[in-house]
Amino acid sequence: MGDLESIKVFLAVAEQRSFVAAARALSMTPPSVTRSVNALEARLGVQLLLRTTRQVSLTSAGAAYALRVAPLVQGLDDATEDLRDGQSQTAGLIRINAPMSMGERVLPDVISQFRTLHPRVSVALTLTDRLIDVVAEQTDLAIRISEPPRDKLTIWRKICRVPRLLVAAPRYLDAQGTPAAPEDLLHHTCIAYDAGAGPEVWDLAAGATRRRITAGRVLSSNNGDLTARLAVNGEGIALLPRFIVAEALATGRLRAVLPGWSPPELWLTLTYPPYDRLPTRLATFSDFFETYVTETRPM
After folding, report:
1. For the segment 77-94, what is each residue's pLDDT rounded down to a tens digit?
2. CATH number of this structure's domain 92-162+266-296
3. 259: nearest Cα among 193, 179, 171, 176
4. Would you list the domain boundaries of the chain?
5. CA 38 → CA 47, 56, 62, 153, 240, distances in Å?
6. Keyword Transcription on this protein (predicted)?
7. What is the mean predicted confidence (pLDDT) over 134-157?
8. How far is CA 17 from CA 40, 58, 95, in A?
9. Does residue 177 contact residue 295 with C-beta atoms inside 8 Å?
């Protein structure tokens, strides 16, 4: 038993004036209480308690020691309780990082609605399309559209699938022709959506059939909304998440291309630093975010 625990046992005996009563209050056995106080006295080299068959009382040194350490122990207990209370309340700062398109299209409503319910939460939001190190960049929560992370030290949570599809503007297809098979894409301008604004490999599947196409030989960008705008402008064919192009598809500014062919599955995920226990504010926000993107505004 450490010094702090032994001091707490000593104070309990001093308050109860009984080893047995202190043991009962601390849910310990009387011999354990006796050993703890004896060990503390041995480490201090001072007798703290007078023991008789009828009662236990403080020595003068014990009284002086109890007077000094009792406020310190109480302060530590109060600090621990305050910390636990803070962790159990939906309050405090949440530092969030998200992709640009997700941040601009989805997060304003999510954050506004969440803060209406939990006004004691503050949010610091940064947007970037690159994968970040949540620990090195001091981020509480990273929202990502990707495959599962390879970093085994972080915590990650799958939220939902993010459908993607090939799209192009009607005027582009009218001028260049509508592809009937993935091989036809070799003769089209395929706009890459790549974190480094470089070429992008499109792995497409129809049942057991697989095809691989390289996009970005002519045009590429590292932002989904920019890629979508290039496609709307008739610059070529793009492979994008549905939530980015849903409005353009609904209004006819974009059309689906090769609808029978699908790219690899991507997931919307939440990534956290390696907490032993997720703080309440993060757990509550994560649940709210999941409900929003799966029920209120499905991806």
Report:
1. 777 766 665 555 688 899
2. 3.40.190.10
3. 179
4. 3-87, 92-162+266-296, 164-257
5. 9, 13, 13, 44, 71
6. yes
7. 80
8. 17, 8, 51
9. no
- In the structure encoding, which two tokens stand for residue 9, read together? 């046992």
- What is the pTM assigned to this prediction? 0.66
For the chain, the distance separating the N- and C-terminal CA atoms, rounded to the nearest angstrom, is: 54
Summarised one tens digit per residue, pLDDT across range 23-61 is 998 889 999 999 999 999 999 999 999 988 778 999 999
What mean pLDDT comes out for the span 183-188? 94
Q: Which of 183-192, 193-202, 274-283 has the highest mean pLDDT?
A: 183-192
The CATH number, out of the four listed (3.60.150.10, 3.40.50.300, 3.40.190.10, 3.20.20.450), of the domain defined by the range 164-257: 3.40.190.10
Query: Helix 107-117 and helix 280-291: axis angle, to 10°?
Result: 130
Cα–Cα distance measured from residue 115 to residue 251, given in angstroms and rounded to the nearest whole number:
33
Contact 178, 289 (CB under 8 A): no
What percent of the chain stands above pLDDT 90? 67
Sheet holding 267-272, edge to edge: 121-127, 92-98, 141-146, 267-272, 155-161
Which residues on neighbouring strands pair with residue 127, listed in sequence order? Answer: 98
C-beta separation of 160 from 120 below 8 A:
no
Cα–Cα dist 197/191, whole Å? 10
Nearest Cα residue to 168 out of 179, 153, 159: 179
Question: Residue with structure tokens 């993107």?
Answer: 293
266 exposure class (CB count in 10 Å sphere: 0-12, 13-18, 19+): middle
CB 94 within 8 A of CB 140: yes
- C-alpha closest to that of 142 among 108, 109, 102: 102
What does the pLDDT read at residue 84? Answer: 61
CATH among 1.10.10.10, 1.10.8.60, 1.10.1200.10, 3.90.230.10 for 3-87: 1.10.10.10
